[in-house]
Amino acid sequence: MKAMMLTGIRRMEMLEVPEPKIINDRDVKIRMDVVGVCGSDIHYYTTGRIGSQVVRYPFPVGHEGAGTVVETGKKVTRVKPGDRIAIEPAMPCGECDQCLAGRPHTCRKLRFLGCPGQAEGCLQEYIIMPESSCYPLPENMTADQAAISEPLAIGVYAVQQSVPMKGKQIGILGFGPIGMSVLLAAQAEGAERIFVTDKIDARLSIAKKSGAFQALNVTREPVTEIISKEEPLLLDAVFECCGQQEALDQAIDLLKPGGKLMIIGIPEFDRWSVPVDKTRHKEICIQNVRRQNHCLEKTLHYLSSGKIDVSLMPTHRFSFEKAKDAFDLVAEYRDGVMKAMIDF
Q1: Could you tell me if 132 and 161 lie in one domain?
Q2: pTM score
Q3: Which tens digit of pLDDT belongs to each residue from 172-193?
């Protein structure tokens, strides 16, 4: 079968590799239909690593996927050949202290699609996943919605972990797919006013169309001044979604006393710097967000019911053979890209 492999920094090649076989009774063999390009995929593409997770070439990334079941192990009951499915990329052990405490997303032995040292990604024609990672789709759900349910679930989880959202004023700093996922989830939970910032006008246009109260370009607008004028008491929660120190500094300025800072963005540096005086006097709560936890089913329900509409997220499409073009487009933030989708 064909697999699109990272072969070096900003290098990607289509290689022929053996087709995977079912080994365990709970395994499911999936033919990939569509894959979304994630920011973490781009980190691996452009730098070869995220923190301690370092690519050993050749390696296929990709974890936002939807596909069709082609074969199942003997004990599989939740899906059958022909079923269209959304794929949960996390494969926790189910036995460690974290899993038993209801935190499979921080499993001690977690395997995650497209994560170096854990599991190959889904930028290949066929993959094998455990039954527990396979979610059958209702008839009204598209493959794009199924693939986007993965990043959207991160937004749903981040909102769930922040503050009770009904009637709240919040900020989202960085409006890529994760920032958009936070906005859509916050709206679904009843946020009153959502302020969005980014550097790309095309993304800010999507934010406005998606219901942001204000969408501000940080390169030319005094963001803190504008938001403070609209909300003199400042914001209940701010979601840092771009991995930039400047955004974290701004988030702390925008938060009201007792506010909550949610850190979702993946920085390319090793340490954040936090102003002690401001965070201490405001008693700001800072929480990191690690992917998502038990939110995929809720997310799929939001999508199938129409409560969340992600139709504005996919902005560009590429064939499997042109995956490198998709990665280059996203890596360079060209052409107003929000989410690039790769079709098989």
Answers
A1: no
A2: 0.97
A3: 999 999 999 999 999 999 999 9
The model's pLDDT over 64-97, given as tens digits with 9 standing for 90+, comes to: 999 999 999 999 999 999 999 999 999 999 999 9
Using CA atoms, how far apart are residues 244 and 255, in angstroms rounded to an integer? 17
The whole-angstrom separation of Cα 112 and Cα 42 is 16
Parent domain of 269 = 153-288
Tokens of residue 244, six digits: 């930039």
Q: Is residue 325 part of a domain?
A: yes
Alpha-carbon gap, residue 93 to 112, rounded angstroms: 11
> CA angle, corner 108, sides to 103 and 112, nearest 5?
85
User: Can you tell me the distance from the alpha carbon of 213 to that of 235, in angstroms, rounded to the nearest whole number?
Assistant: 13
Q: Give the separation between CA 292 and CA 297, rounded to whole angstroms.
A: 11
CA gyration radius, the chain? 20
Alpha helices in 217-285 (DSSP H): 223-230, 245-254, 276-282
Using CA atoms, how far apart are residues 242 and 296, in angstroms rounded to an integer?
22
* pLDDT tens-digit series, residues 244-275: 999 999 999 999 999 999 999 999 899 999 99
Residue 341: helix, strand or coil by DSSP? strand
